[in-house]
Amino acid sequence: MFCRESLAEYLDAEYIFEKTRQGFAFFEQQFDYPYPFDKYDQLFVPEFNAGAMENAGAVTFTEAYVFRSQVTDAMRERRVITILHELAHMWFGDLVTMRWWNDLWLNESFAEYMSTLATADATEWNECWTTFVASEKSWAYRQDQLPSTHPIVAEIHDLEDVLVNFDGITYAKGASVLKQLVAWVGQDSFMKGVHEYFVKHHHSNTELPDLLGELETQSGRDLAEWSQKWLETAGVNTLRPKFTLDKDGNYASFSIEQTAASDYPTLRPHRIAIGLYEDRAGSLERVRRLEIDIDGAETQVPKLVGTQRPALLLLNDDDLTYAKIRLDEHSLETVSQRLGDIADSLPRAIIWGTLWDATRDAEFPRADSSTSHLPTSAKKPVPRRCAPSCSSLYFQPPAMFRRCAAMLLCVSSATQCGTSPAPPNQAQIASSSS
Q: Is 196 one of the annotated active-site residues of the chain?
């Protein structure tokens, strides 16, 4: 590990070595393929124009990751993700390299997915998927609804085109869709397919079909239509529950409706989880989880027929797919009063994003109740699209959290609000990692 001599006293080398060792063990176990190079150096360099770069066996990082003062937990977590992101590239990117820049998204999305998975499963940052929702995925949703959106797989004619595509679609939406692909084929099948991909194509160049072919073989899923709908079209779908109740309050019928924006009308196949939450000793906890495939404009869910309507029904629980979701009226009433009572951070972050999306789409008239259901405990996440001027993903002081909620109120009611300038967003530096 290397840095300038003047920064050596601030470099917490043992901690970084520990995270790196955890990453090595995790990736070698998941891929069933050993680290492919003779050494692994990490260099913190001055005036670096990105978060990091995955040179084979010698990763360079921005000096911003050498902390000379106290930083937020969000920044410390982001550093771990970046360290593991670059380590994942040693296999996907360096051992096997894309043939041309049109597969840039796959190179970066794979590293972002695997680094988040490793951070959550192999380090102390076990709520990393919450951060993914609040940061990366929020960035993707925001950019995918702008006039400048484009398909994940873009036509790259020259290096000028490459520069245009280092954006939230390539990085954040790509990683979100890759997470959906893992859910679609199953994580075990995905890792076995990746192993075969490394075995067959090591030290060579590949294209997307080379990976998809291995995933098809391992999972038995036909990915041709999946690839076309997810990777070659732009836009984000919206999922909402449709149901009727019997006289006892049980679901008499239940389906999921899927819609798309008129400019990007593609309806996609999704693998999603449905969570049913009830009160348990003052906390809203998930009491049932159902994982299903949906496709087309409407998908019936017969397994929920006869089930008592819960206090909260959450589509896309566990955040498996890339889609905006809507809450039914009963669930909306529950979260308007008890969002802070949900025990786990991931569904809280999903619901915050849902409330903002509905407000943005003019389906939720105003976030009037946002301050009434603010959590009072520490480290409650707010998606970045809800509070774009707040520099940290976790707001430990209640006053800071309420400031962000006030900003949400201001935006939703289209009023002018005076807020102090946000401090420099160090996480943005990390988001530019290669």
A: no
